[in-house]
Design goal:
Blueprint (H helix, E strand, L loop, with lengths): L2 E6 L11 H4 L4 H14 L3 E6 L3 H13 L4 E5 L8 H10 L3 E5 L21 E4 L4 H14 L6
Parallel strand pairs: 1-2, 1-3, 3-4, 4-5
The protein binds 1,3,4-trihydroxy-5-OXO-cyclohexanecarboxylic acid.
The site of 1,3,4-trihydroxy-5-OXO-cyclohexanecarboxylic acid has 10 residues, from loops.
Length: 150
């Protein structure tokens, strides 16, 4: 059994009402519930955390080392394109993580094409919408126990 952590960054608390044509109509609570269920079905625990504040996201990543988190699923929101500090936190704890974006950031504005996380993530799930979170659980499961089936 592994300990998984789902971290969502700024404005993702507004999922469902925020630009539904870009991010879909599912609410964050529903996404978290589905991911938790899927993780449990594979014998893992999933802790969920969302914040609009950069320092709180950094603190949660630091805490992940203390609480022995095995794998992080991270949607950094707009901090994807700006936060060296959050990148440094991920490097500091050295916990493997998948970077996830609901929208296809490469099909959007130029400033969304660069991520401070992609080169240090184990994998990236981009543009799959809310279903990406389910795939992220499978990716985490497979990363932690390759060949055991997802
Ligand atoms: C996002 C993409 C980011 O560019 C944006 O700032 C977000 C959400 C996504 O999930 O598609 O807040 O991370």
């Amino acid at each position: 059994m592994a300990s998984l952590l789902l971290i969502n960054g700024p404005n993702l608390n507004l999922l469902g009402s925020r630009e539904p044509e870009v991010y879909g109509s599912a609410q964050l609570a529903d996404i978290e519930a589905r991911a938790t269920e899927l993780a449990a079905a594979r014998g893992h625990t999933l802790a969920c955390f969302q914040s609009n504040a950069e320092h709180e996201l950094i603190n949660r990543v630091q805490q992940a080392r203390a609480d022995a988190t095995d794998f992080i699923i991270l949607n950094p929101g707009a901090f994807t394109h700006t936060s060296i500090a959050l990148r440094d936190a991920l490097l500091a704890v050295a916990i493997p993580f998948v970077e996830l974006h609901l929208s296809n950031t490469f099909a959007r504005e130029q400033f969304r094409h660069h991520s401070y996380f992609s080169d240090i993530a184990t994998s990236c799930l981009i543009g799959i919408g809310p279903f990406g979170y389910e795939l992220a659980i499978l990716a985490a499961s497979n990363y932690l126990a390759p060949g055991e089936g997802t």
